[in-house]
Here is the input.
Amino acid sequence: MAKDDQDDTGDDWAAAMAEQAEVEEKAAAKASPVNFEELQSDSGRATVNPELEVILDIPVSISMEVGRTSITIRNLLQLNQGSVIELDRLAGEPLDVLVNGTLIAHGEVVVVNEKFGIRMTDVISPAERIKKLR
Here is the structure.
């Protein structure tokens, strides 16, 4: 490749990077901050900022975590029916409630109409949940 071709490529690259930076600056200037604070209505139920209304019907995955542990692949391959895995929690400790992998609460197992459920015992505030998402 000739030196002139390298200079042209470098100039093109610099121009493309400058253009991208300009686009990002314009997008940042247009973006308006969304207020994620929840308001309490007279009935005591939380009401949501109208700006958030568009996301309220998006499905999320919720899971309850009893505990965690690490094992070697050798031990993993030896697991079979009846195997017991020791977890990092004591019996009776609250479960973690996760939404899309983010901790939002702690709870305890309950049985409702012959099905398992979870009673929330400690819910992380909405402001703290938003901070964890960042």
